[in-house]
Amino acid sequence: MQLLLVEDDPTMQATLHRALTRRGMEVTAAGDGRSALSQWAARQPDAVILDLTLPGLDGLQVLQQARSRGLRTPVLILTARGTVGDRVMGLNAGADDYLPKPFDLDELEARLRALVRRSADPGTPVAPSTLQIGAIRYDKDSGALYLNGEVMELTPRELALMHALLAQPGHAVTKERLYELVFPGQLDVQYEAIEVVVYRLRKKLTGTGLTLMTLRGLGYLLRADT
Q: Which one is the CATH code of 2-120: 3.90.1150.10, 3.40.50.2300, 1.10.940.10, 3.40.50.300?
Protein backbone atom coordinates (compact mmCIF):
# COMPACT_ATOMS: atom_id res chain seq x y z
CA MET A 1 0.00 0.00 0.00
CA GLN A 2 1.34 3.43 -0.97
CA LEU A 3 0.39 6.15 1.51
CA LEU A 4 0.66 9.91 1.58
CA LEU A 5 1.02 11.05 5.19
CA VAL A 6 0.20 14.74 5.69
CA GLU A 7 1.21 15.77 9.21
CA ASP A 8 2.98 18.97 10.26
CA ASP A 9 4.17 17.81 13.69
CA PRO A 10 7.71 16.41 13.12
CA THR A 11 7.52 13.95 16.02
CA MET A 12 4.12 12.59 15.06
CA GLN A 13 5.12 12.43 11.39
CA ALA A 14 8.31 10.50 12.17
CA THR A 15 6.50 8.13 14.54
CA LEU A 16 3.73 7.32 12.06
CA HIS A 17 6.16 7.05 9.14
CA ARG A 18 8.25 4.53 11.06
CA ALA A 19 5.29 2.54 12.41
CA LEU A 20 3.46 2.27 9.08
CA THR A 21 6.63 1.42 7.17
CA ARG A 22 7.24 -1.44 9.59
CA ARG A 23 3.76 -2.70 8.74
CA GLY A 24 4.71 -3.05 5.10
CA MET A 25 3.43 0.24 3.72
CA GLU A 26 5.32 2.64 1.46
CA VAL A 27 4.96 6.05 3.07
CA THR A 28 5.58 9.50 1.59
CA ALA A 29 5.32 12.39 4.04
CA ALA A 30 4.35 16.04 3.63
CA GLY A 31 4.41 18.70 6.32
CA ASP A 32 2.26 21.44 4.78
CA GLY A 33 -0.81 21.79 2.61
CA ARG A 34 0.78 22.94 -0.64
CA SER A 35 3.42 20.21 -0.57
CA ALA A 36 0.69 17.68 0.17
CA LEU A 37 -1.33 18.70 -2.90
CA SER A 38 1.74 18.55 -5.11
CA GLN A 39 2.78 15.09 -3.92
CA TRP A 40 -0.80 13.83 -4.00
CA ALA A 41 -1.17 14.73 -7.69
CA ALA A 42 2.30 13.44 -8.61
CA ARG A 43 2.27 10.11 -6.77
CA GLN A 44 -1.41 9.07 -6.86
CA PRO A 45 -1.19 7.09 -3.58
CA ASP A 46 -3.56 4.33 -2.54
CA ALA A 47 -4.69 6.33 0.50
CA VAL A 48 -4.06 9.67 2.21
CA ILE A 49 -3.75 10.29 5.95
CA LEU A 50 -4.58 13.95 6.38
CA ASP A 51 -4.19 16.15 9.45
CA LEU A 52 -6.52 19.16 9.59
CA THR A 53 -4.19 21.66 11.26
CA LEU A 54 -1.53 22.47 8.65
CA PRO A 55 0.53 25.56 7.78
CA GLY A 56 -0.42 27.37 4.58
CA LEU A 57 -3.48 25.47 3.40
CA ASP A 58 -5.26 23.66 6.20
CA GLY A 59 -6.45 20.09 5.84
CA LEU A 60 -9.98 20.96 4.73
CA GLN A 61 -8.65 23.27 2.01
CA VAL A 62 -6.26 20.57 0.83
CA LEU A 63 -9.11 18.08 0.66
CA GLN A 64 -11.47 20.44 -1.14
CA GLN A 65 -8.84 21.41 -3.73
CA ALA A 66 -7.84 17.79 -4.29
CA ARG A 67 -11.43 16.74 -4.90
CA SER A 68 -11.99 19.70 -7.22
CA ARG A 69 -8.98 18.52 -9.26
CA GLY A 70 -10.51 15.08 -9.60
CA LEU A 71 -8.23 13.32 -7.10
CA ARG A 72 -10.43 10.52 -5.76
CA THR A 73 -7.90 8.83 -3.45
CA PRO A 74 -9.51 7.57 -0.20
CA VAL A 75 -8.77 10.00 2.65
CA LEU A 76 -8.62 9.32 6.36
CA ILE A 77 -8.60 12.48 8.46
CA LEU A 78 -6.40 12.22 11.53
CA THR A 79 -6.60 15.14 13.92
CA ALA A 80 -6.66 16.32 17.50
CA ARG A 81 -9.82 18.32 16.82
CA GLY A 82 -12.44 16.45 18.79
CA THR A 83 -15.70 18.21 18.03
CA VAL A 84 -18.43 16.58 15.99
CA GLY A 85 -18.69 19.75 13.89
CA ASP A 86 -15.09 19.37 12.70
CA ARG A 87 -15.69 15.73 11.85
CA VAL A 88 -18.83 16.50 9.89
CA MET A 89 -17.02 19.27 8.01
CA GLY A 90 -14.24 16.86 7.07
CA LEU A 91 -16.62 14.18 5.86
CA ASN A 92 -18.67 16.73 3.94
CA ALA A 93 -15.51 18.07 2.31
CA GLY A 94 -14.85 14.65 0.82
CA ALA A 95 -13.08 12.59 3.49
CA ASP A 96 -13.85 8.88 3.62
CA ASP A 97 -13.13 8.26 7.29
CA TYR A 98 -12.15 10.10 10.46
CA LEU A 99 -9.94 9.02 13.37
CA PRO A 100 -9.42 11.45 16.27
CA LYS A 101 -6.21 11.65 18.25
CA PRO A 102 -5.28 9.86 20.45
CA PHE A 103 -5.69 6.72 18.36
CA ASP A 104 -4.59 3.10 18.19
CA LEU A 105 -2.18 2.05 15.43
CA ASP A 106 -4.01 -1.24 14.89
CA GLU A 107 -7.27 0.64 14.31
CA LEU A 108 -5.52 3.11 11.98
CA GLU A 109 -4.10 0.27 9.89
CA ALA A 110 -7.44 -1.56 9.79
CA ARG A 111 -9.29 1.56 8.66
CA LEU A 112 -6.72 2.30 5.96
CA ARG A 113 -6.89 -1.23 4.55
CA ALA A 114 -10.69 -1.11 4.60
CA LEU A 115 -10.65 2.19 2.67
CA VAL A 116 -8.32 0.79 0.04
CA ARG A 117 -10.38 -2.39 -0.33
CA ARG A 118 -13.59 -0.43 -0.81
CA SER A 119 -11.86 1.85 -3.30
CA ALA A 120 -10.59 -1.12 -5.32
CA ASP A 121 -13.96 -2.87 -5.25
CA PRO A 122 -16.87 -0.44 -4.80
CA GLY A 123 -19.23 -3.42 -4.66
CA THR A 124 -17.67 -4.76 -1.47
CA PRO A 125 -20.28 -4.90 1.31
CA VAL A 126 -19.75 -2.22 3.92
CA ALA A 127 -20.10 -3.06 7.60
CA PRO A 128 -22.81 -1.18 9.51
CA SER A 129 -21.50 2.27 10.40
CA THR A 130 -23.45 2.63 13.66
CA LEU A 131 -23.66 0.66 16.88
CA GLN A 132 -26.55 1.00 19.32
CA ILE A 133 -25.83 -0.05 22.90
CA GLY A 134 -28.15 0.98 25.68
CA ALA A 135 -29.35 4.53 24.99
CA ILE A 136 -26.09 5.38 23.25
CA ARG A 137 -25.54 5.31 19.49
CA TYR A 138 -21.95 5.13 18.25
CA ASP A 139 -21.28 6.53 14.77
CA LYS A 140 -18.18 4.65 13.63
CA ASP A 141 -17.58 6.95 10.66
CA SER A 142 -17.33 10.15 12.66
CA GLY A 143 -16.45 8.64 16.03
CA ALA A 144 -19.31 10.59 17.62
CA LEU A 145 -21.45 9.27 20.46
CA TYR A 146 -25.12 10.21 20.75
CA LEU A 147 -27.36 9.91 23.80
CA ASN A 148 -31.05 10.03 22.93
CA GLY A 149 -30.17 11.79 19.69
CA GLU A 150 -27.94 14.42 21.28
CA VAL A 151 -24.14 14.48 21.02
CA MET A 152 -22.50 13.37 24.27
CA GLU A 153 -20.14 15.91 25.79
CA LEU A 154 -16.98 13.91 26.51
CA THR A 155 -13.37 14.96 26.90
CA PRO A 156 -10.87 13.58 24.33
CA ARG A 157 -9.62 11.04 26.90
CA GLU A 158 -13.12 9.95 27.84
CA LEU A 159 -13.93 9.59 24.14
CA ALA A 160 -10.77 7.54 23.56
CA LEU A 161 -11.77 5.29 26.46
CA MET A 162 -15.26 4.81 25.03
CA HIS A 163 -13.87 4.01 21.59
CA ALA A 164 -11.60 1.35 23.11
CA LEU A 165 -14.48 -0.24 25.04
CA LEU A 166 -16.89 -0.08 22.09
CA ALA A 167 -14.36 -1.78 19.81
CA GLN A 168 -15.19 -4.98 21.71
CA PRO A 169 -18.57 -4.44 23.39
CA GLY A 170 -19.29 -7.05 26.02
CA HIS A 171 -15.60 -7.98 26.34
CA ALA A 172 -13.16 -6.87 29.01
CA VAL A 173 -10.29 -4.59 28.00
CA THR A 174 -7.21 -4.67 30.21
CA LYS A 175 -6.15 -1.64 32.19
CA GLU A 176 -2.78 -1.74 30.44
CA ARG A 177 -4.38 -1.65 26.99
CA LEU A 178 -6.69 1.22 27.93
CA TYR A 179 -3.76 3.20 29.30
CA GLU A 180 -1.92 2.80 25.98
CA LEU A 181 -4.94 3.99 24.01
CA VAL A 182 -5.98 6.88 26.26
CA PHE A 183 -2.45 8.17 26.99
CA PRO A 184 -0.44 7.18 23.88
CA GLY A 185 3.25 8.00 24.22
CA GLN A 186 2.66 10.12 27.34
CA LEU A 187 5.35 8.63 29.56
CA ASP A 188 4.98 11.40 32.14
CA VAL A 189 1.40 10.35 32.97
CA GLN A 190 1.06 8.03 35.96
CA TYR A 191 -0.43 4.61 35.31
CA GLU A 192 -3.22 5.23 37.84
CA ALA A 193 -4.50 8.16 35.74
CA ILE A 194 -6.63 5.75 33.73
CA GLU A 195 -8.70 5.16 36.88
CA VAL A 196 -9.54 8.86 37.02
CA VAL A 197 -10.80 8.80 33.42
CA VAL A 198 -12.82 5.66 34.17
CA TYR A 199 -14.36 7.30 37.25
CA ARG A 200 -15.40 10.41 35.33
CA LEU A 201 -16.79 8.45 32.40
CA ARG A 202 -18.71 6.14 34.72
CA LYS A 203 -20.52 9.14 36.22
CA LYS A 204 -21.46 10.42 32.75
CA LEU A 205 -22.88 7.02 31.82
CA THR A 206 -25.38 7.12 34.69
CA GLY A 207 -28.88 6.76 33.29
CA THR A 208 -27.73 5.76 29.79
CA GLY A 209 -28.50 2.07 30.14
CA LEU A 210 -24.79 1.27 30.21
CA THR A 211 -22.56 0.22 33.08
CA LEU A 212 -18.79 0.55 33.06
CA MET A 213 -17.73 -2.43 35.14
CA THR A 214 -14.41 -3.12 36.84
CA LEU A 215 -13.43 -6.78 36.60
CA ARG A 216 -10.71 -7.59 39.10
CA GLY A 217 -7.66 -8.97 37.35
CA LEU A 218 -9.21 -8.56 33.90
CA GLY A 219 -9.81 -4.85 33.30
CA TYR A 220 -12.93 -2.92 32.36
CA LEU A 221 -16.07 -3.90 30.49
CA LEU A 222 -18.93 -1.87 29.04
CA ARG A 223 -22.21 -3.68 29.56
CA ALA A 224 -25.75 -2.86 28.54
CA ASP A 225 -28.13 -3.04 31.50
CA THR A 226 -30.87 -5.62 31.21
A: 3.40.50.2300
